[in-house]
Design goal:
With 176 residues, this protein is an all-beta fold. The chain is built from no helices and ten strands. The strands form two sheets. The protein has a five-stranded antiparallel β-sheet, with no helix packed on it. A five-stranded antiparallel β-sheet has the order 2-3-10-5-8, with no helix packed on it. Strand 6 and strand 7 form a beta hairpin. The relative contact order is 0.27. About 9% of the residues have low confidence.
Length: 176
C-alpha cells in the first residue's frame, strides 16, 4: 500500500505579532506639540508661537504662528551621504501664495567639524486656498554632502498678514 506524509500548513500569524517598522524614527523632540512642557523642547523665533487645542492635525495640541516660528535644535550626527527628510503638516488663515521659505518647515544645517552650513532646506507650503483651513502635508528630502552635526528647525510663517498652524513635524535620517 502507498502511504502519504501529512501536509503541514504554515502557521497563522498571531494577532499579537509585532508591527512591521514603518521607517526611520523622527529625531524631533515633541514634534506633535503635546503635553504641558512644549516650551522645554521648542523656543520662540520672531514673534514665536502659541500652543493651541482648537486647531490640531492629530493629538490634542498644535502651534499657531503669526510672523515667527517655533524653533528647535535637532542633533543628527549624520554621516555624509545620509538622506535627511524634513516634514510636517500646516494649515492657514489669510496666508498669501508664493511665500516660499517664509511659510515652511524650515531648517538650517550645520556640518560637523567646522564644515560650514547649508541654509534654507525647507518643506514649503503653498498658502492661499491650498492651505486655507485645510491641513496639508509637505516634505523636503536632501542628501547631506558632509557629516551633519545638527540642524535648527523652525515652523516658519513670516512676512505675511495671516496665521498658520503646524503639527506633526518630523526629521528623519536614513544612513548611506
Amino acid at each position: 500500500p502507498v502511504t502519504f506524509a501529512p501536509v503541514t500548513q504554515p502557521p497563522v500569524p498571531s494577532p499579537t505579532s509585532p508591527p512591521v517598522p514603518s521607517g526611520p524614527t523622527s529625531l524631533v523632540e515633541n514634534g506633535s506639540f503635546e503635553g504641558p512642557s512644549v516650551s522645554s523642547s521648542w523656543s520662540n523665533y520672531g514673534n514665536g508661537y502659541t500652543v493651541v487645542t482648537d486647531q490640531v492635525q492629530s493629538g490634542s495640541q498644535a502651534v499657531r504662528v503669526t510672523d515667527g516660528a517655533a524653533k528647535q535644535k535637532v542633533t543628527l550626527n549624520a554621516a555624509a551621504g545620509s538622506t535627511i527628510k524634513v516634514s510636517g503638516y500646516s494649515k492657514s488663515s489669510g496666508a498669501s501664495t508664493g511665500l516660499w521659505n517664509d511659510y515652511s518647515v524650515y531648517t538650517d544645517v550645520v556640518y560637523a567639524n567646522g564644515g560650514g552650513y547649508l541654509w534654507g532646506q525647507c518643506a514649503r507650503f503653498a498658502g492661499g486656498s491650498a492651505t486655507e483651513d485645510t491641513w496639508t502635508y509637505s516634505e523636503w528630502t536632501f542628501v547631506a554632502e558632509k557629516e551633519v552635526a545638527y540642524l535648527t528647525l523652525y515652523t516658519m510663517y513670516r512676512n505675511d498678514g495671516g496665521t498658520a498652524w503646524f503639527d506633526d513635524v518630523s526629521v528623519t535620517v536614513t544612513p548611506p
